[in-house]
UniProtKB/TrEMBL annotation:
Protein name: SHLB2 protein
Annotated gene: Sh3glb2_1
Main location: cytoplasm
Domain BAR span(s) in chain numbering: 5-171
Species for this entry: Regulus satrapa (Golden-crowned kinglet)
Entry's Gene Ontology BP terms: membrane organization
PANTHER family assigned: DREBRIN-LIKE PROTEIN-RELATED, SH3 DOMAIN-CONTAINING
Length: 171
C-alpha cells in the first residue's frame, strides 16, 4: 500500500542518504558493465553462438565441457595430411609440414589463452554477478522493505496525531 501510494504521489517517501544513493548507482553501473564485458569476452573467446550455448549448458549441468580443436589446430592437421599426400621430401610437402607445425603451436597457444582467460578473467566476473551482486540485491530489497515499513508507520502516526488533535478540538 505504501509503495503504491508513493508511486501515485499520495504518500511521503523517506529519502536515503545521498552518499548511499551514490553507492547504489555505482553498484548498478558496475553490474551493468560487468555483464557487458563478460558477454563480449565470451563472444571473443568463442565466436560460435551454438558452441557458446553448448558450453553454457555443460556449465549449468556441472559437466566438463568437451575439449574443442581450435581452427589453427584443424588447419595444422589438414596441412600435415596434405604434406603426407604430397610427400615430405617435396618442397611443397616440407613447407606444409613447417607451416602446419607453426599452426599447431598457434592453435595450442590459442587454446591455452582461452583456458587462462576463462579461469583468470571470466570466473571472477561470474563470481561477482552470481555471489556479490545477489547479496547486494537481497540487501537492497530488505532495505527497501524496511523503508516502506518506516514510511507506513510514519503515515499511521501522522494520521493518529491528526485524529487526536481533531478530537481535542471538538468536545
Amino acid at each position: 500500500l505504501q509503495f503504491t501510494e508513493e508511486k501515485l504521489g499520495q504518500a511521503e517517501k523517506t529519502e536515503l542518504d545521498a552518499h548511499f544513493e551514490n553507492l547504489l548507482a555505482r553498484a548498478d553501473c558496475t553490474k551493468n558493465w560487468t555483464e557487458k564485458i563478460l558477454r563480449q569476452t565470451e563472444v571473443l573467446l568463442q565466436p560460435n553462438p551454438s558452441a557458446r550455448v553448448e558450453e553454457f549448458l555443460y556449465e549449468k549441468l556441472d559437466r566438463k565441457v568437451p575439449s574443442r580443436v581450435t581452427n589453427g589446430e584443424l588447419l595444422a592437421q589438414y596441412m600435415t595430411e596434405a604434406a603426407s599426400d604430397f610427400g615430405p621430401g617435396t618442397p611443397y610437402g616440407k613447407t606444409l609440414i613447417q607451416v602446419g607445425e607453426t599452426q599447431r603451436r598457434l592453435g595450442a597457444a590459442e587454446r591455452e589463452f582461452i583456458r587462462s582467460a576463462s579461469i583468470n578473467f571470466l570466473t571472477p566476473l561470474r563470481n561477482f554477478l552470481e555471489g556479490d551482486w545477489r547479496t547486494i540485491s537481497k540487501e537492497r530489497r530488505i532495505l527497501q522493505n524496511r523503508r516502506l515499513d518506516l514510511d507506513a508507520c510514519k503515515a499511521r502516526l501522522k494520521k493518529a496525531k491528526a485524529a487526536e488533535a481533531k478530537a481535542a478540538v471538538t468536545p
